[in-house]
What does this fold into?
Amino acid sequence: MATKDVNLPDIGEGVTEGELVQWLVAVGDSVEADQPIAEVMTDKATVEVPSPYAGTVKELKAEEGDVIPIETVMLVLNESGAGAAASAPAPAAEPEPVAAPAPQPQTNGGSHAPQPAAATPASAGASAEMYPPVADSTVLATPGTRRLAREMSVDINQLQGSGLAGRVTRDDVLSAKGGAGAVSAGSPSVQMPAPSYQGQPGDMEERVSMRGIRKKIAENMQMAKRVVPHFTLMEEVNVTSLVKMRTEAKAMGERKGVKVTYLPFVMKALIATLREFPMFNASIDDEASEIVYKKFFNIGFAADTPNGLLVPVIKNADQKTILQLSAEIVDLATRAREGKLQLDEMRGATMTITNIGSVGGVYATPIINHPEVAILGMYKMEDKPVMINGKFRAQKMMNYTITCDHRLIDGAVAANFMKAFASRIESPSALMLDMI
It folds into this structure.
């Protein structure tokens, strides 16, 4: 019977390996050419891998959570036609041996047996308590955490995560295994066993490979700090008028089904200021020793996700209205958290904004997203007394920072940039021509 090997293809962009997040097929499934067979997370994004051939799945060569080098065999297919017809009865004979090991996960043995059970609809209900199928998961969790839950026979769908945005962490899974079958958001520290060990200090440590997106973030940040001489300047800005304008725009957006935040207004103020100070909308070509001035405005914004910090990019942001920017920001941020961004949606930025204030910070020194030469930070909004016409009045105040590459931007230039930017934020009506 003729078979075909399906390799992890060259995804491009310098990607050399990928982490298998989820199988989209199981042994015995019929596969059409170009049908997605797996989700793979690279150091840039999560992508669906299609099959170049049609046939019936004979063998899965990797487990969810494995890191696979490109051009490595992922899956083996029986060729369609006679081969597929001959192999069709095989799945019917599999449910009995697959169902039998269901009570055995307490022994933590047989990592291959749970995989077909999780992916086979007929056996999914019987094995859900021990090995919940990844495809049926309704909670946020990293691939490593999901794999740990399966190995420890914990139903991850029953856990209430203690991580960011309700993400289930490894501690949540470990606590669930040590105590009851489910854990409340604040209980992991209560249910963890007392540290009464008598082994070596290393026995209380856990080592996890730095890979995928987290590895790439670490490499980029280290390179940026090593290559770019950073400096940061902060400005406190009165945003009372901006709050009023955003409140009106928010009501308009709700009528059109669009969520309007402060970020689109900041983008518009930034773009207007970049036109005035073009050296901020540039990059440095280190090999050619050239400054590259960009004549377009692609604005990146930092998005915190369960898999790490990603930077989706709004292309040609200067040509879009506040409502258009708002809709695109929400869409990109949502898909970033879900791991569904495409590679092209995270490249080509000319400058980046990081909104730490959405979490609660009042000041920070962000790292520049190389090869860009500056990054704008926006922080928590606070009510403060401000002297106006001889009287103190409560005003909405917000800190902004500009972190610059000192090879191109001097301190005085950065100060003038922030002065111009702050004036636009304080008087947002002057931005109307850019908002239309």
